[in-house]
Specification:
6-stranded antiparallel β-sheet; bacterial flagellum; alpha+beta; elongated; Flg_bb/hook_C_dom; cell projection; flagellum; Flagellar basal-body rod protein FlgF
Amino acid sequence: MDRALYVAMTGAAQTLKAQAVNSHNLANASTVGFKAELAAQQAVAVDGPLMPTRVNTQLQGQGFDGSLGSIMQTGNPLDVALAPDRWLAVQAPDGSEAYTRAGDLQVGADGLLRNGGGHMVMGDGGPLSVPPNSQIAIGNDGTVTVVPLGQGPEAPVTVGRLKVVDATADQLERGSDGLMRARAGQTPEDASGAVMTSGAVESSNVNLAESMVTMIALARQFEMQVKLMRTAEQNDQASASLMRMG
């Protein structure tokens, strides 16, 4: 009976983890540029003495869904929607370079350009700053121009270019801070040409209907695994009772 109990117990634990992944996706269904996290369960043989018949259930991270979200027109000149396989370089909290498709940009009180997550946006030479009280425009190649306060639109000044890299989903991995980084051995190259569209953002690619169905399916799966644990316990008690009677 302990074999059935072991499988049900480890399966239930991993189902809870899968539910946490799905809940995280649902919570970010409205987050600009969010990519849904993927996960799958698989059976793994348990190593060690007296364990040849034991099978452990493990949750295997499958990376993230690299498909595009829908493009939402905002009319905000600071918003940018990245082209496919293009990623905006930002400075992570630990100071390293990371990547995101969240193009909801804004100018902070310190004059630095940041996205909606508060991460500093990188230019060719580091975090990009713009003069205060200036009119800002972003070209489809990432060039940032400003019209200083008191100047006419015929006198734009280029302050830098947003750093955008070319990388496919299998070249990147999500960090604990939610930002993407290059996998070991991968070096994303700088992208050129038309890399973005201004006045728009990419929505999350989380499929709400599919995630809700997954949530219900995982809840039912967990109930079945708990029921199997109870059944295994009852069978064990019944077997022990028969042995005492014998």
